[in-house]
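Is N-acetylmannosamine-6-phosphate placement plausible here? Inputs below.
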Amino acid sequence: MVEVKITEDIKVGGNNPCFIIAEVGQNHQGDIEIAKKLIKAAKEAGASCVKFQKTCLKEKFTKKYLERPYNNPNSWGKTYGEHKRHLEFSESQYRELFKYAQEVGILFTASAMDMVSFDFLVNIKVPFIKIGSGDSNNLLFLKYAASKKVPLIISTGMVDKQAVRTIYDIISAQHKQFCLLHCISAYPVPYEDCNLTVLQDYKNTFDIPVGYSGQEIGTAVALGAVALGAKVLEKHITLDKTMKGTDHVCSLTPPEFQQLVRDVRVIEASLGTPIKKVVTSEIPCIDKLQKSLVMGSTKNKGEILYPGDVKIKVAEPKGLNALHFEEVIYKTLVCDKKEDEPLNKSDFC
Ligand SMILES: CC(=O)N[C@H](C=O)[C@@H](O)[C@H](O)[C@H](O)COP(=O)(O)O
Ligand SMILES: C=C(OP(=O)(O)O)C(=O)O
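Reply from A.M.:
I modeled the complex. Tokens:
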């Protein structure tokens, strides 16, 4: 199984801890101070990385699309262009945020929403680049991104399995330093649409790490994803879910994000081995409460043990493990035994 190297110390996939991305996206409201607060919150919550979205508006959208009215409660302008311009940080603001994240001590990156933004992110040397679901059908962009040979995390919302296979083929023709994230692009995603078991299919199909980018409400589905093998987890983070903006509703507050990180680590620790065995921590309970074979009645040496003569009880000291019940029946006692006495191997032949 391929591991994706994010930094000298951080790898994704295999037995490495799940890489948890706090997606700020545009939850900063276009305000760099809020963006910094979110970077700090992501660090304090224990996220592996904080992520923004970098867009060159005229590369990503047509002129007409930018001019179309954006008349809804989440809008920051009369047209979609005005709205997006309000939310877009400049390159120098990006450098400032990158530097701030380094000071705070958290990895920083962004989704490249177009080729110009991709080049910018390569230029400032982010540790990896995210490609969001908006580009899961953008084969030109995917080929371009693959040719740059930087680590990629790619979301697969809004397309079917055949397209995901195409994404895999395009990138893996160049390199294997990429992950694929299952994603459903709705804000918020109804739980019935999360189709988390797709992750199992991705795991069986692809030889690269797979993960989950979740736009549903809460943390339960994300935790399920980790239990199903997600090696990357992405969730939106917000300072306040009631703020204006499309994504706040499906985001986690800093305390929720912190709880998510804690719970992910608990799930990882608890996944363990698929081999069912008795573990050391069970020994006290075995000693205290596991049942064993005892005499159901008083019987003498030479007598046969019929089914009703042997009982299964919690006893001290213990008799034979109760799993041996069938082996004991119809055997002959070699000593006298009283009711409730533990029954051991040396008591019969
Ligand atoms: C598919 C995709 O890009 N999705 C992103 C990631 O999840 C979102 O953050 C969008 O940028 C956001 O929902 C757009 O909202 P508006 O259109 O109100 O600016
Ligand atoms: C759209 C994005 O992500 P996703 O498709 O994972 O929601 C993004 O990262 O900008």
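Short version: The domain at 4-271 is CATH 3.20.20.70 (TIM Barrel).
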